[in-house]
Hints:
single chain, mainly alpha
Amino acid sequence: GIDLRIGFHLFCCMSQLFVGCLGIGFSPSVVAFLTAVIHKPQVLLFFITSAFLWVISMVFPALLEYIATDLQNFSILTILIGISFQELMRYVVFRSYLSIQATISRYPSMNKIFRMEDPTSSFAAGLGWAMVSSIMLYGPVLGKSNGPATFYMEACPRLSLFVLSAWTSFFNTFLHVGLMGVAFYGYRRRNIALVASVALLHILAALSTLLNEIGGGCQASLPLFAVASIAAAIHAAYLHYRSPATTASSS
């Protein structure tokens, strides 16, 4: 009877940690997907396209690391190479958006029903980008939070690895939705400064995670990552709010 009670108590504790981390890490993206994406076929299509292109953006750096194994010893260089490929694919996402809209605009009846605008399309693209990156980068760690123990790093003695990954995944959604929104606005207007700011903020956010490699570093890394993410989201919202919705056909 005692063993059964202990086992049940452990199961409840493990379930609470797993559900809690899963809720923190993926609740914003899941809620946004269910409310703003899934009911609109054209937006859902673009969401999937963006997610697929993020996967493609990770293939090339991985191949490069596989060929040049010494790159794994240079964290900053690896991050810069990875972000370079991601930003290149982000532009491909925008060009794909223009292509999809151009196809739809050829048919007036379809254009009226499946109208695509910059704010909603960039939101869907950023959400697809954020969801698949969170699943690939943080999902494996969060999936292990249903085990019988938790893990702590020297860099984060007060916050378990699972909780740290959950909050990083949480802010990752705001980061990439925001960056995609700013990028679309900059691409549309050929604003080099805005496009450069997207890459710069992306680099700063990624570099902040390197602080997790030093003792007590997560006390700075997580707040810095959060600030970068919220700043990207607010900047995107401000840019699109102050300008009328723009369709691809008006370019």
